[in-house]
Each structure stands twice: as structure tokens, then as C-alpha cells.
Amino acid sequence: RAPPLWAPRRLEPLSKADLFICTFPTVLCVLLHELYPETPILFLAIANPLFAAPGCTKREDSTVRECETEEAKDFLVEFRKMLTAPGKPVRGVSGYTVTTALVAYQAGVVLPLAGKAGRYLPPEATWRGFDSLE
Predict the structure, then answer these.
(1) Can you tell me the mean pLDDT for 7-13?
(2) Are 83 and 107 a contacting pair, CB within 8 Å?
(3) Quick one: CA torsion of 12, 18, 23, 28, rounded to 10 degrees?
(4) For 120, how many CA atoms within 13 A lie in the half-sphere containing its CB?
(5) What does the pLDDT look like over 51-108, one tens digit per residue?
(6) CA distances (Å), origin 89, targets 44, 60, 103
(7) Which of 70, 45, 65 is closest to 55 using CA atoms?
């Protein structure tokens, strides 16, 4: 299937982004990473990564058992690569304990729990990433 004629025009501003912050659905975050592999992404897991994923769209509320398809397996491989590939500008965190568990079970990656801690930080606080010495 060919992309819609309007797609390049609508996606063009994304090519100028310095950073993507992506949450849900996870399939869109993986797609963003595939389209713009050099653009850093902060991925915040807030729900089931298999929601609306390829091979999991027969029901709105997909469960792990309903997503045991080749498409879903391929998606989870790409999701895992996005989060773990060396040198990739992607960092993942989880908003909830349950999403940490879901991502660990489905993709084999244990994300750090960020929760809603950001609201308690002072306004001048910044995230320095994993390479920070502080």
C-alpha cells in the first residue's frame, strides 16, 4: 500500500525535531524510531505495549494471549531493539509498576520506574541522561 499523498507534507516538521517524547500507543513510538532513527526518543511506558500493535487489533483491549501472532512477535522484536540497541538515542522509562512488569514480560527489558516524580522537582531541574557523572 502506498502512503497517502499528504503524509510527506504532514511528517516533514518531525524531521526537524531535536527530541521525541513518546508514550502511547507504543506502536507509534516504534514507528517514529524507524522513520527517524537518529532522533533521540524518551519513551515513557504508560500502558500495555501490545495495545493496537500489529497482530493485536482484533479487540480493543488486547491481552498477551490474544497477541500471539507472527506480526506481534516481529513488533516486540523491533520494540526490544529500539530500547536496547547499542548506540541508539532511545531511553525508556515506565510510568507505573504494572507497565514495568508488562514491558519486562513482553520485551524482556526492565525499564526504570519514573512514576510522577517529575512534579516534585524544582523548575530548574534537568535530565542529564545515563551518562551523567552526578
Answers:
(1) 77
(2) yes
(3) 30
(4) 4
(5) 888 888 765 555 556 678 899 899 999 999 999 988 878 999 998 888 889 999 999 9
(6) 14, 31, 19
(7) 70
Low-confidence winner among 5-14, 18-27, 97-106, 123-132 (lowest mean pLDDT): 123-132
Instruction: Supply the pLDDT for residue 86.
Output: 86
Q: Are 72 and 53 in contact (CB under 8 A)?
A: yes
Q: What is the pLDDT of residues 22-38, one digit of tens each?
A: 999 999 999 999 999 99
Q: Are strands 41-45 and 90-94 parallel, antiparallel or unpaired?
A: parallel
C-alpha cell at 65: 494471549
CA-CA distance, 100 to 93, in Å (whole number)? 8
Which class for 90: exposed (0-12), middle (13-18), buried (19 or more C-beta within 10 A)? buried
How would you class 48 by CB atoms within 10 Å of its CB: exposed for 0-12, middle for 13-18, buried for 19 or more? buried
